[in-house]
Specification:
Layout (H helix, E strand, L loop, with lengths): L24 H15 L4 H10 L13 H18 L1
Amino acid sequence: MDSWRAAAACQEVDPDLFFPVGMGSPALAQADEAKKVCRRCPVRQQCLRAAMTDPHPPAGVWGGLTEAERRSLRRRSRRGAEARH
């Protein structure tokens, strides 16, 4: 287990909060609540980095971003890297 996880703010919260089901208003509200926890987390960047570098991207909210937001960030990062080369 990554050592940063012990300091994560989510350790104090029901893990289900970070795994909203569906795309409707309740799931969006749940994701927003999870992101509030992430905003106060001292290891948010480590969490996001772990989710972004995982060869099998995890489900749910990690490092303050949803799966869709992380996919978008990956695409933008790839495009930026391609533009530099």
